[in-house]
Amino acid sequence: MRHNKRRTAGVLATILLAFSLVIAGCGDDESKEADNSQDVTAELGQPLDTTSKKVVAEYQGGKVTEGELNLYLNILQFLQPNVSFLLNNDEAKEQLVKQLIGERMVAAKVKDDESFAKQADKDMKEIENYLKSQSEEKSFDEILKERGFNKDQLREFLINGNKVSSYFEKQVKEEDLKKEYKRSDQFVNVKVQHILISTENRSEAESKKRAEEVKKKLDKGGDFKKLAKKYSDDPGSKNQGGVIEGLADQFVPEFAEAARTLPLNKLSDPIKTDYGYHVMKVTERKKLPYKEVKDQLKQDQLQKLYQSFVEKNVKLKKLELPKSESEQQ
């Protein structure tokens, strides 16, 4: 019953600050579980042409050529493949142009320091090691060339990213993070028993009636585990007694709200979500300790600061977005 939060145009301006998380993810368990025989860049389309000198954007103090923008997009897609799905959306692409300009403006404010280059080299090595673990057939240089850029260009991208992060990290205060933690319900972990009656192959009326029948059986003392196995349409939990666990914010909105607010161990009336009707009971609810979520709070604050900077300071004098491949056909 979890849902993936879609990136909005505003959040696009934070991808650069999130690149370090993408790099860190290169070594996580989920990445290692991927098919090692598959080319890690196979799902990406052809890289964008980086040779065009056509000016696509002008701003106070500079301009962006189509080649420069495409180089930036090639690297972003390499580090964060989800960017690929946004390139046919003009609003999203405009935000990416502003992001590139915002990065330039912030990086220019930061004094050069060898620590930025050292961190970039470390990140480069982690990326290279990850790619080697996924494919032994191609060298690091060959993979980057296929994606439309080289080591020097990637290194410069990472150095600028480190400068941007450094600039905004100095503005983040510990007391502000603690205040945000206290007022936020983002980090509430819940354990829930639920039975889903799906509307996929039933009418809403039929699903609701079936859910109400299940609720009556539970009210009369029915065994939750047995009823979940018999009635639930959630394959991920029906054989585990209907139990699911995680941060409340990870679930679809109506389910999340109930998970945060229902009295513990009290059976709910049927709750409607996009998946159908849920009869649920919250058995555990606790807020994660500050120390466990501090990094996420900090990342969220950095993203907000960067987004605010872009909105206030990046004013386009000219914008002529290059056509996508689908528009050119």
General description of the model:
The protein has a four-stranded antiparallel beta sheet with strand order 4-3-6-5, sandwiched between helices. A three-stranded antiparallel beta sheet has the order 2-1-7. Helix 8 packs across helix 13. It folds into two domains: 203 residues, no CATH class; 100 residues, Chitinase A, domain 3, CATH 3.10.50. The N terminus is likely disordered. The chain is α+β, with helices and mostly antiparallel strands and 329 residues long. A hairpin with a 2-residue loop joins strand 5 and strand 6. It is elongated. The two termini are 39 Å apart. It is built from 14 helices and seven strands.
In brief:
By secondary structure, the protein is α+β, with helices and mostly antiparallel strands.
Number of domains: 2
Alpha-carbon distance between the two ends: 39 Å
- Strand % is 5-15%
Shape: elongated
**What topology, given as strand order, has the largest sheet?**
4-3-6-5
Rg over CA atoms: 24 Å
Question: Which parts are unreliable, with pLDDT below 50 for 5 consecutive residues or more?
Answer: 3-16, 18-42
Count of helix runs: 14
List keywords for this structure.
Chitinase A, domain 3; disordered N terminus; 329 residues; 3-stranded antiparallel β-sheet; 14 helices; alpha+beta; 2 domains; elongated; 4-stranded antiparallel β-sheet
Blueprint (SSEs and pairs):
Elements: H1 9-12, H2 19-25, H3 29-32, E1 55-59, E2 62-65, H4 66-79, H5 90-109, H6 114-134, H7 140-146, H8 151-169, H9 174-183, E3 188-198, H10 204-219, H11 224-231, E4 243-247, H12 253-261, E5 271-273, E6 276-287, H13 290-313, E7 316-319, H14 325-328
Antiparallel strand pairs: 1-2, 1-7, 3-4, 3-6, 5-6
Helix pairs in contact: 5-8, 5-13, 6-8, 8-13, 9-13
